[in-house]
Amino acid sequence: MKYKPLLLAFLLTALLAGCTLPSSAEGSSLILSEPVDGATYQVGDMVQARSQIVSSDGAAQVDLLVNGEIVRSDSPSPVVHQGNLLQPWKPEQAGTYTLQTQMTTTSGAKVQSQSVTIQVGGVTEPLAPPTTVTVPPIATTPPTSTFTPTPTFTATFTSTPAPPTTVTVPPIATTPPTSTFTPTPTFTATFTSTPAPPTVTAFQDANCRFGPGSAYNITGSLLNGESAPIVGRNAETTWWVIQTKSGATCWIWDGTVSVSGDTSRVPVIAPPPTPTFTPEVTPLSAPAPIAPSGELTCRSSVFLEWSAVSHPNGIDHYEWQVTGPGGTQSGSANNTKVEFFVSCSSSYTWQVRAVDGDGNAGPYSDAMSFQIK
User: Fold this and answer.
1) Are 302 and 233 part of one and the same domain?
2) What is the tally of structural domains in the chain?
3) Residue 205 belongs to what domain range?
4) CB proximity list for 166: less than 8 A, separation 6 or greater
5) What is the pLDDT of residues 244-280, one digit of tens each?
6) Among 104, 107, 139, 285, which has the minimal tally of Cβ within 10 Å of its Cβ?
7) Nearest to 23 by CA among 80, 115, 104
8) What predicted TM-score, i.e. pTM, was given to this entire model?
9) What confidence tens digit (pLDDT) does each residue in 7-36 have?
10) Which residue, 236, 209, 223, 177, is CA-closest to 313?
11) What CATH number did the domain enclosing 84 receive?
């Protein structure tokens, strides 16, 4: 009985040694937001794998795994602390695929996303049943034969007063000609179906521009949840040319939309010349930092919050930067609030600026400081 505790400790150590815990890194997370679990595609469709990255160390590399095998690796430059990463992948065969992404931080830690299962089917286009057009035959009436009787001759003898003799010549039988019928050929009509064009659907309010880049003016927008057909793309497939409800076309960034349908036949369209801008007459004003400031209790993250600004060209987004123990980190946001990961016993200084609809950046705000105890 005195060896029983030792035996239990040995069994517990063996069980723990046989367990493999999933890798993780403090202050980091990786979510595979697209495609959704159970989504269906056709062979040749472009599957857009979108990862949401949050890492206090910074993501140095992100791998896309399909059925446990790495099919592509991307190394963001500069490293990403918070943001989205798009990794397109095109299945070549029908079947069931399991997708997962894996992030390697600058400290060497590995973080894996959840697994997503999709179905890929073959492309089939049923043909309409053939239509047979039958032309009725043309009725033919045989020609009417005309019979001319042979005249009857009467012989008269004067020497002998015998009664007259009548000689009748039998008629000649006439066979009417045989008519020939030529049937009219039968025609079979064949109909070919035209596949529907691919479309984009905005997963946030997105600007639509005269060309592929923020240097081009905004000509319209696609609101969150709205869809539009694709009529072209740039050579890198990072911008799509869509057709609006009014029939006009404009360019929309791939990072703000999801794509459905076969895009392999979408033509590459050359972008228009980059416009030349004159200096902005109305300068942009700097946003005012609101929070955080001062001393805060120990926590893993804070929310940077600032006041909104306006401009005749509109505000496209805000750019922020934070200086702390790990150096200066920066990012962008479409609203006036963003989450930032921090460390305890550390001091931070941050500021923010606005970028208008033409891509012009304004001045940074006054710096605001805070301390995490």
Assistant:
1) no
2) 3
3) 199-260
4) 152, 154
5) 999 999 999 999 999 999 999 999 999 999 887 665 5
6) 139
7) 104
8) 0.31
9) 555 454 444 443 334 455 678 999 999 999
10) 209
11) 2.60.40.10
